[in-house]
Amino acid sequence: MPDSAKNTSDESPQTPGAPAPEPLRFYGTTWVDHSGGYAVRRVALGLGAVLAAVAGAFVLRFAYQGVVVADIGSWASILLVAAFAVCSALAFARTLTSYTRRPDEREAAAESSMHSIRVIGFIGVLLAYALRTCVEAPGERLHRAEYEAAVARHERQRRSRTGNPAVRKKKRGR
Q1: What is the mean pLDDT of the chain?
Q2: pLDDT band at residue 46, thresholds of 50, 70 and 90?
Q3: What is the model's pTM?
Q4: Hey, is 139 helix, strand or coil?
Q5: How far apart (Å, rounded) are the C-alpha atoms in residues 100 and 50?
Q6: 128: which of 17, 93, 95, 142 fits an S-S bond (Cβ 3.0–4.6 Å)?
Q7: Cα–Cα distance, 49 to 57 (Å, whole number)
């Protein structure tokens, strides 16, 4: 990882055992302090996701034309369009919610079964990613909340353990 992509903020763990921020795909740990070309990456990845969605729409258009040329019936072409539309809508919604909260155990099992729907509805996934990059790095809010909670928990534990334990015992005995 290049030096510019590393986290150089004051929030980085200075003490051993302090929690480290979890890296995000394409961003590393630059999401912590928005350094190392964070804004440029957000713009580039958002545009890249939109361009990939457009390219995917063209591929789906050619697939649709292949079904029409095959002349297997209008029901098949309607079914194909409906399947891609529904899968894209479900993938869009699931992808957006996955950036804001972690699924519980029951939802995690359902997410594994959603994999094929996300593959079929890849345009929805790409558009959700592009939409989320307009606000922040996808998953940044979730990771930031978890990281800040871990840092606060670490500080509380560290503060409660500071000082000489023998002196603390003497003060209690009086």
Answers
A1: 84
A2: very high
A3: 0.77
A4: coil
A5: 21
A6: 95
A7: 12
Calculate mean pLDDT across residues 4-18: 54
Residue count of the chain, please give it.
Answer: 174
Confidence bin at 76 (pLDDT 50/70/90): confident
CA distance 113 to 73: 30
Q: Which of 120, 119, 123, 118 is nearest to 52 (CA)?
A: 123
Tokens describing residue 64: 């649709």
pLDDT, one tens digit per residue, over 105-157 is: 887 788 888 889 999 999 999 999 999 999 999 989 999 999 999 999 988 88
Among residues 24, 57, 53, 56, the alpha carbon closest in space to that of 41 is found at: 24
Note whether 19 and 147 are within 8 A (CB): yes
Helices 74-98 and 122-133, interaxial angle, to 10°? 30
**Contact criterion met (CB below 8 Å) for 24 and 137:** yes
Per DSSP, what are the bridge partners of residue 24?
Answer: 28
The answer to whether 128 and 97 are in contact (CB under 8 A) is no
